[in-house]
Amino acid sequence: MSQCLKAELKIWADALKAYDDQEPLKSIELFSIAKSGKILTNMGLIYATMGNHEMAIEQFDAATNLDNFLAVAHFQRGVSNFYLGRYGAAYASFQDTYLHLRGNQFINYEQLGLKFKLFSAEVLFNRGLSQLHLGYSRRGLNDLEQAGREKVTTEHDVIDHAIRDGGERYAIFSVPAGVLYRPPEQKLRNLKSKEYLGKVKLVVGSDVDSIYTELLDATNRFRNSYPGKVSLPLESTLNAVPIADIPSTLKRRFTAPTLRIRSIGPSPILEPEHSEFPDDVSETKTGNFNKMRDDETVRERPSGGESVAPLQPPSSPSLPSLNMPRRARTPKSDALPQLRQGVAHCFIPLFSAVRSEWKKLCRLVMVCCSTHGFLE
User: Fold this and answer.
1) Is beta strand 243-244 parallel, antiparallel or unpaired with respect to 234-235?
2) Which of 13, 53, 118, 375 has its CB 3.0 to 4.6 Å from that of 80, i.e. a possible disulfide?
3) pTM of the full predicted structure?
Protein backbone atom coordinates (compact mmCIF):
# COMPACT_ATOMS: atom_id res chain seq x y z
CA MET A 1 0.00 0.00 0.00
CA SER A 2 1.49 3.31 -1.11
CA GLN A 3 1.96 6.22 1.28
CA CYS A 4 -0.47 8.40 -0.70
CA LEU A 5 -3.22 5.78 -0.51
CA LYS A 6 -2.57 5.21 3.19
CA ALA A 7 -2.82 8.95 3.89
CA GLU A 8 -6.09 9.19 1.95
CA LEU A 9 -7.56 6.22 3.82
CA LYS A 10 -6.51 7.75 7.14
CA ILE A 11 -8.27 11.04 6.30
CA TRP A 12 -11.30 9.13 5.06
CA ALA A 13 -11.58 7.15 8.31
CA ASP A 14 -11.17 10.27 10.49
CA ALA A 15 -13.84 12.15 8.54
CA LEU A 16 -16.31 9.27 8.85
CA LYS A 17 -15.66 9.08 12.58
CA ALA A 18 -16.39 12.80 12.91
CA TYR A 19 -19.65 12.40 10.96
CA ASP A 20 -20.71 9.48 13.15
CA ASP A 21 -19.97 11.68 16.19
CA GLN A 22 -22.49 14.23 14.89
CA GLU A 23 -19.80 16.66 13.72
CA PRO A 24 -20.67 17.21 10.01
CA LEU A 25 -18.66 20.41 9.61
CA LYS A 26 -15.49 18.76 10.92
CA SER A 27 -16.17 15.82 8.66
CA ILE A 28 -16.47 18.09 5.62
CA GLU A 29 -13.28 19.88 6.61
CA LEU A 30 -11.40 16.59 6.75
CA PHE A 31 -12.94 15.36 3.49
CA SER A 32 -11.86 18.54 1.71
CA ILE A 33 -8.18 17.56 2.10
CA ALA A 34 -8.45 14.60 -0.27
CA LYS A 35 -10.24 14.73 -3.61
CA SER A 36 -11.83 11.72 -5.32
CA GLY A 37 -15.22 10.85 -6.79
CA LYS A 38 -16.34 8.94 -3.70
CA ILE A 39 -15.18 11.58 -1.22
CA LEU A 40 -16.81 14.41 -3.19
CA THR A 41 -20.04 12.39 -3.27
CA ASN A 42 -19.79 12.00 0.52
CA MET A 43 -19.41 15.76 0.92
CA GLY A 44 -22.46 16.36 -1.29
CA LEU A 45 -24.53 13.86 0.75
CA ILE A 46 -23.50 15.56 3.99
CA TYR A 47 -24.43 18.99 2.64
CA ALA A 48 -27.79 17.61 1.44
CA THR A 49 -28.45 16.14 4.89
CA MET A 50 -27.73 19.56 6.41
CA GLY A 51 -30.19 21.15 3.92
CA ASN A 52 -27.49 23.07 2.00
CA HIS A 53 -28.41 21.85 -1.48
CA GLU A 54 -26.47 24.56 -3.29
CA MET A 55 -23.17 23.28 -1.87
CA ALA A 56 -24.35 19.72 -2.41
CA ILE A 57 -24.86 20.39 -6.13
CA GLU A 58 -21.34 21.82 -6.39
CA GLN A 59 -19.86 18.69 -4.84
CA PHE A 60 -21.93 16.40 -7.09
CA ASP A 61 -20.83 18.38 -10.15
CA ALA A 62 -17.17 17.99 -9.10
CA ALA A 63 -17.69 14.24 -8.55
CA THR A 64 -19.23 13.72 -11.99
CA ASN A 65 -16.42 15.71 -13.59
CA LEU A 66 -13.91 13.26 -12.07
CA ASP A 67 -16.07 10.19 -12.79
CA ASN A 68 -18.80 10.78 -15.34
CA PHE A 69 -20.10 7.21 -14.94
CA LEU A 70 -20.88 7.72 -11.22
CA ALA A 71 -24.65 7.33 -11.59
CA VAL A 72 -25.41 7.91 -7.91
CA ALA A 73 -23.83 11.39 -8.09
CA HIS A 74 -26.06 12.26 -11.09
CA PHE A 75 -29.04 10.90 -9.18
CA GLN A 76 -28.39 12.94 -6.02
CA ARG A 77 -27.70 16.09 -8.02
CA GLY A 78 -31.19 15.70 -9.51
CA VAL A 79 -32.63 15.27 -6.01
CA SER A 80 -31.02 18.52 -4.77
CA ASN A 81 -32.21 20.41 -7.87
CA PHE A 82 -35.73 19.08 -7.34
CA TYR A 83 -35.79 20.32 -3.74
CA LEU A 84 -34.57 23.72 -4.92
CA GLY A 85 -37.44 23.87 -7.44
CA ARG A 86 -35.15 23.50 -10.46
CA TYR A 87 -37.27 20.85 -12.15
CA GLY A 88 -35.63 21.23 -15.54
CA ALA A 89 -32.15 20.63 -14.10
CA ALA A 90 -33.58 17.80 -12.03
CA TYR A 91 -35.08 16.18 -15.14
CA ALA A 92 -31.73 16.43 -16.95
CA SER A 93 -29.88 14.82 -14.03
CA PHE A 94 -32.40 11.96 -13.79
CA GLN A 95 -32.15 11.45 -17.53
CA ASP A 96 -28.34 11.15 -17.28
CA THR A 97 -28.77 8.71 -14.40
CA TYR A 98 -31.09 6.49 -16.42
CA LEU A 99 -28.64 6.46 -19.32
CA HIS A 100 -25.76 5.42 -17.02
CA LEU A 101 -27.81 2.47 -15.80
CA ARG A 102 -27.19 1.01 -19.28
CA GLY A 103 -30.41 -1.01 -19.28
CA ASN A 104 -29.77 -2.63 -15.89
CA GLN A 105 -32.60 -2.93 -13.40
CA PHE A 106 -30.40 -1.69 -10.55
CA ILE A 107 -26.81 -0.92 -9.53
CA ASN A 108 -25.56 -2.31 -6.23
CA TYR A 109 -23.08 0.12 -4.65
CA GLU A 110 -22.44 -2.04 -1.59
CA GLN A 111 -19.43 -3.55 -3.32
CA LEU A 112 -17.96 -0.04 -3.54
CA GLY A 113 -18.62 0.82 0.11
CA LEU A 114 -22.02 2.59 -0.24
CA LYS A 115 -24.94 0.69 1.27
CA PHE A 116 -27.41 1.69 -1.41
CA LYS A 117 -29.01 0.13 -4.48
CA LEU A 118 -30.02 2.45 -7.29
CA PHE A 119 -33.12 1.01 -8.99
CA SER A 120 -34.31 2.03 -12.42
CA ALA A 121 -37.89 2.24 -11.06
CA GLU A 122 -36.84 4.99 -8.64
CA VAL A 123 -35.03 6.92 -11.38
CA LEU A 124 -38.10 6.76 -13.67
CA PHE A 125 -40.40 7.78 -10.84
CA ASN A 126 -38.28 10.86 -10.04
CA ARG A 127 -38.06 11.76 -13.73
CA GLY A 128 -41.85 11.44 -14.07
CA LEU A 129 -42.50 13.73 -11.08
CA SER A 130 -40.07 16.30 -12.53
CA GLN A 131 -42.02 16.32 -15.82
CA LEU A 132 -45.32 16.61 -13.98
CA HIS A 133 -44.03 19.72 -12.21
CA LEU A 134 -42.88 21.10 -15.54
CA GLY A 135 -46.42 20.66 -16.94
CA TYR A 136 -45.76 17.59 -19.08
CA SER A 137 -48.51 15.49 -17.54
CA ARG A 138 -48.74 12.83 -20.24
CA ARG A 139 -45.00 12.22 -20.41
CA GLY A 140 -44.75 12.28 -16.62
CA LEU A 141 -47.50 9.67 -16.22
CA ASN A 142 -45.81 7.49 -18.83
CA ASP A 143 -42.64 7.50 -16.74
CA LEU A 144 -44.64 6.62 -13.63
CA GLU A 145 -46.32 3.71 -15.40
CA GLN A 146 -42.98 2.43 -16.68
CA ALA A 147 -41.58 2.73 -13.12
CA GLY A 148 -44.54 0.64 -11.86
CA ARG A 149 -43.62 -2.11 -14.30
CA GLU A 150 -39.99 -2.16 -13.08
CA LYS A 151 -40.62 -2.00 -9.33
CA VAL A 152 -38.73 -4.56 -7.23
CA THR A 153 -39.16 -3.98 -3.49
CA THR A 154 -42.19 -3.32 -1.33
CA GLU A 155 -41.12 0.32 -0.99
CA HIS A 156 -41.97 0.71 -4.68
CA ASP A 157 -45.67 0.11 -4.02
CA VAL A 158 -45.98 3.85 -3.56
CA ILE A 159 -45.60 4.16 -7.33
CA ASP A 160 -49.06 2.63 -7.86
CA HIS A 161 -50.59 5.12 -5.42
CA ALA A 162 -48.85 8.01 -7.21
CA ILE A 163 -50.23 6.86 -10.56
CA ARG A 164 -53.74 6.69 -9.11
CA ASP A 165 -53.45 10.18 -7.59
CA GLY A 166 -51.75 11.73 -10.65
CA GLY A 167 -48.42 12.24 -8.86
CA GLU A 168 -49.53 15.12 -6.71
CA ARG A 169 -48.02 15.67 -3.23
CA TYR A 170 -45.56 12.77 -3.53
CA ALA A 171 -41.88 12.95 -2.59
CA ILE A 172 -39.07 11.61 -4.70
CA PHE A 173 -36.65 8.77 -3.92
CA SER A 174 -33.12 9.61 -2.68
CA VAL A 175 -30.15 8.13 -0.82
CA PRO A 176 -31.11 7.72 2.89
CA ALA A 177 -29.56 10.15 5.35
CA GLY A 178 -26.37 8.90 7.00
CA VAL A 179 -25.40 6.62 4.11
CA LEU A 180 -21.86 7.44 2.93
CA TYR A 181 -19.05 5.79 1.04
CA ARG A 182 -16.93 3.86 3.54
CA PRO A 183 -13.60 2.12 2.87
CA PRO A 184 -13.37 -1.66 3.38
CA GLU A 185 -12.66 -2.77 6.95
CA GLN A 186 -9.72 -4.85 5.77
CA LYS A 187 -7.96 -1.78 4.37
CA LEU A 188 -8.55 0.10 7.61
CA ARG A 189 -6.99 -2.75 9.58
CA ASN A 190 -3.97 -2.71 7.32
CA LEU A 191 -3.27 0.91 8.21
CA LYS A 192 -1.73 -0.23 11.48
CA SER A 193 1.93 -1.16 11.20
CA LYS A 194 2.86 -4.73 12.07
CA GLU A 195 6.15 -6.10 13.36
CA TYR A 196 6.84 -9.48 11.75
CA LEU A 197 10.55 -9.82 12.69
CA GLY A 198 10.58 -8.20 16.12
CA LYS A 199 12.41 -5.11 17.26
CA VAL A 200 16.16 -5.02 16.73
CA LYS A 201 18.28 -3.65 19.57
CA LEU A 202 21.76 -2.40 18.72
CA VAL A 203 24.19 -1.81 21.58
CA VAL A 204 27.54 -0.16 20.82
CA GLY A 205 30.21 0.02 23.48
CA SER A 206 33.47 1.86 23.82
CA ASP A 207 35.58 -1.04 22.56
CA VAL A 208 35.25 -3.87 20.09
CA ASP A 209 34.59 -6.50 22.74
CA SER A 210 31.36 -4.83 23.87
CA ILE A 211 29.72 -4.60 20.43
CA TYR A 212 26.93 -7.07 19.81
CA THR A 213 23.58 -7.19 18.06
CA GLU A 214 20.61 -9.19 19.29
CA LEU A 215 16.91 -9.69 18.63
CA LEU A 216 14.92 -9.01 21.78
CA ASP A 217 12.39 -11.76 21.24
CA ALA A 218 14.95 -14.41 20.37
CA THR A 219 17.21 -13.38 23.25
CA ASN A 220 14.40 -13.47 25.77
CA ARG A 221 13.33 -16.91 24.63
CA PHE A 222 16.91 -18.15 24.82
CA ARG A 223 17.46 -16.73 28.29
CA ASN A 224 14.21 -18.24 29.51
CA SER A 225 15.30 -21.62 28.17
CA TYR A 226 18.80 -21.32 29.69
CA PRO A 227 18.57 -19.19 32.86
CA GLY A 228 22.26 -19.53 33.65
CA LYS A 229 23.39 -18.56 30.17
CA VAL A 230 25.00 -15.14 29.77
CA SER A 231 25.63 -13.15 26.63
CA LEU A 232 28.60 -14.10 24.52
CA PRO A 233 30.73 -11.05 23.60
CA LEU A 234 33.33 -11.39 20.91
CA GLU A 235 36.91 -11.90 22.01
CA SER A 236 39.21 -9.95 19.75
CA THR A 237 42.75 -8.64 19.78
CA LEU A 238 44.73 -6.54 17.36
CA ASN A 239 46.67 -9.45 15.84
CA ALA A 240 44.15 -12.24 16.09
CA VAL A 241 40.88 -13.18 14.45
CA PRO A 242 37.86 -12.68 16.82
CA ILE A 243 36.57 -15.98 18.09
CA ALA A 244 33.31 -16.29 19.97
CA ASP A 245 33.28 -18.08 23.29
CA ILE A 246 31.44 -21.27 22.49
CA PRO A 247 29.59 -23.31 25.12
CA SER A 248 31.30 -26.51 26.11
CA THR A 249 28.39 -28.55 24.73
CA LEU A 250 29.04 -27.14 21.24
CA LYS A 251 32.81 -27.31 21.19
CA ARG A 252 32.79 -30.95 20.15
CA ARG A 253 30.97 -30.06 16.94
CA PHE A 254 33.63 -27.58 15.83
CA THR A 255 36.81 -29.32 17.09
CA ALA A 256 39.34 -29.70 14.32
CA PRO A 257 40.34 -33.33 13.66
CA THR A 258 43.74 -34.29 15.03
CA LEU A 259 46.12 -35.83 12.52
CA ARG A 260 48.10 -38.65 14.11
CA ILE A 261 51.35 -39.51 12.31
CA ARG A 262 53.32 -42.49 13.53
CA SER A 263 57.05 -41.84 13.62
CA ILE A 264 59.01 -44.28 11.50
CA GLY A 265 62.45 -45.11 12.77
CA PRO A 266 65.30 -46.76 10.91
CA SER A 267 65.27 -50.56 10.56
CA PRO A 268 67.83 -52.58 12.59
CA ILE A 269 71.06 -53.31 10.71
CA LEU A 270 71.95 -56.98 10.38
CA GLU A 271 75.42 -58.20 11.20
CA PRO A 272 77.56 -59.69 8.43
CA GLU A 273 77.37 -63.43 7.89
CA HIS A 274 81.08 -64.01 8.58
CA SER A 275 80.75 -62.90 12.22
CA GLU A 276 82.32 -65.41 14.43
CA PHE A 277 79.92 -64.93 17.35
CA PRO A 278 76.24 -64.42 16.67
CA ASP A 279 73.86 -62.31 18.75
CA ASP A 280 72.37 -65.32 20.51
CA VAL A 281 75.69 -66.36 22.07
CA SER A 282 76.00 -65.22 25.64
CA GLU A 283 78.67 -62.81 26.74
CA THR A 284 79.83 -65.29 29.43
CA LYS A 285 80.78 -67.99 26.97
CA THR A 286 82.65 -65.57 24.71
CA GLY A 287 84.63 -64.13 27.61
CA ASN A 288 85.62 -67.56 28.90
CA PHE A 289 86.79 -68.64 25.50
CA ASN A 290 89.02 -65.58 25.02
CA LYS A 291 90.51 -66.00 28.53
CA MET A 292 91.34 -69.62 27.85
CA ARG A 293 93.27 -68.72 24.72
CA ASP A 294 95.28 -66.05 26.55
CA ASP A 295 96.24 -68.47 29.36
CA GLU A 296 97.46 -71.10 26.94
CA THR A 297 99.65 -68.61 25.11
CA VAL A 298 101.31 -67.31 28.27
CA ARG A 299 101.94 -70.80 29.63
CA GLU A 300 103.70 -72.13 26.52
CA ARG A 301 106.08 -69.15 26.03
CA PRO A 302 109.64 -70.03 27.54
CA SER A 303 111.52 -67.70 29.75
CA GLY A 304 114.84 -67.93 27.88
CA GLY A 305 113.62 -66.17 24.81
CA GLU A 306 113.62 -69.26 22.59
CA SER A 307 111.37 -69.15 19.74
CA VAL A 308 108.75 -71.68 20.12
CA ALA A 309 106.01 -72.43 17.75
CA PRO A 310 102.78 -70.93 18.84
CA LEU A 311 100.30 -73.13 20.52
CA GLN A 312 97.82 -74.56 18.12
CA PRO A 313 94.23 -74.71 19.16
CA PRO A 314 92.90 -78.15 19.84
CA SER A 315 91.47 -80.01 16.97
CA SER A 316 88.20 -80.50 18.66
CA PRO A 317 87.26 -77.50 20.82
CA SER A 318 85.02 -78.07 23.73
CA LEU A 319 82.61 -75.30 22.62
CA PRO A 320 79.81 -76.24 20.32
CA SER A 321 79.67 -75.03 16.77
CA LEU A 322 78.49 -71.40 16.55
CA ASN A 323 77.59 -71.37 12.82
CA MET A 324 73.78 -70.69 12.77
CA PRO A 325 71.55 -70.00 9.76
CA ARG A 326 70.99 -66.29 9.09
CA ARG A 327 68.41 -64.33 7.08
CA ALA A 328 69.70 -63.33 3.67
CA ARG A 329 69.67 -59.58 2.83
CA THR A 330 68.01 -58.40 -0.38
CA PRO A 331 68.02 -55.00 -2.15
CA LYS A 332 64.33 -54.60 -1.37
CA SER A 333 64.85 -55.00 2.37
CA ASP A 334 67.64 -52.38 2.28
CA ALA A 335 65.58 -49.79 0.37
CA LEU A 336 62.39 -50.11 2.45
CA PRO A 337 63.59 -48.09 5.52
CA GLN A 338 64.92 -45.31 3.30
CA LEU A 339 61.60 -45.21 1.41
CA ARG A 340 59.65 -44.89 4.66
CA GLN A 341 61.84 -42.08 5.88
CA GLY A 342 61.45 -40.18 2.58
CA VAL A 343 57.65 -40.51 2.60
CA ALA A 344 57.52 -39.29 6.20
CA HIS A 345 59.70 -36.24 5.48
CA CYS A 346 57.50 -35.33 2.48
CA PHE A 347 54.04 -35.71 4.05
CA ILE A 348 54.60 -34.43 7.58
CA PRO A 349 54.84 -30.75 6.47
CA LEU A 350 51.82 -31.24 4.21
CA PHE A 351 49.71 -32.67 7.03
CA SER A 352 50.77 -29.83 9.31
CA ALA A 353 49.70 -27.23 6.75
CA VAL A 354 46.33 -28.96 6.21
CA ARG A 355 45.74 -29.08 9.95
CA SER A 356 46.55 -25.39 10.35
CA GLU A 357 44.19 -24.38 7.52
CA TRP A 358 41.44 -26.59 8.95
CA LYS A 359 41.71 -24.85 12.33
CA LYS A 360 41.48 -21.43 10.67
CA LEU A 361 38.36 -22.52 8.79
CA CYS A 362 36.71 -23.79 11.98
CA ARG A 363 37.48 -20.53 13.74
CA LEU A 364 35.95 -18.53 10.90
CA VAL A 365 32.77 -20.65 10.96
CA MET A 366 32.43 -20.19 14.71
CA VAL A 367 32.86 -16.41 14.39
CA CYS A 368 30.15 -16.21 11.72
CA CYS A 369 27.76 -18.38 13.74
CA SER A 370 28.24 -16.34 16.90
CA THR A 371 27.86 -13.04 15.02
CA HIS A 372 24.54 -14.04 13.46
CA GLY A 373 23.18 -15.59 16.64
CA PHE A 374 23.19 -19.23 15.43
CA LEU A 375 24.98 -20.41 18.56
CA GLU A 376 22.47 -18.79 20.96
Assistant:
1) antiparallel
2) 53
3) 0.52
